[in-house]
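User: Some background: our group keeps a shared notebook of sequences we're curious about, and every so often someone picks one and asks for a predicted structure to add to the entry. Today it's my turn. The entry only has the sequence so far, pasted here. Could you supply the structure so I can complete it?
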Amino acid sequence: MIGEFSAACAESEPAEQLWSWGYREGYQGLWSWQYNAGGHCTDSQEVQVQGMMSIRDNTENGKIPIEVE
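Assistant: Of course. Here's the predicted structure to add to the notebook entry:
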């Protein structure tokens, strides 16, 4: 499990790349930092959703059901 990461403080790595890396490396889950988008090193909800959605169709490590409401 990878918890509390953000593209805002990831040395120029876009959210999609961070989420994809975690998935490809076989982690059981990924939590971005503060979905409510407040505080230091926080991505906007839009950026976080882009990251999550970038891995939604991956299947090599199993299909991940992603629903964002």
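Suggested note for the entry: The first helix runs from residue 15 to 24. The helical segments are 15-24, 45-53.
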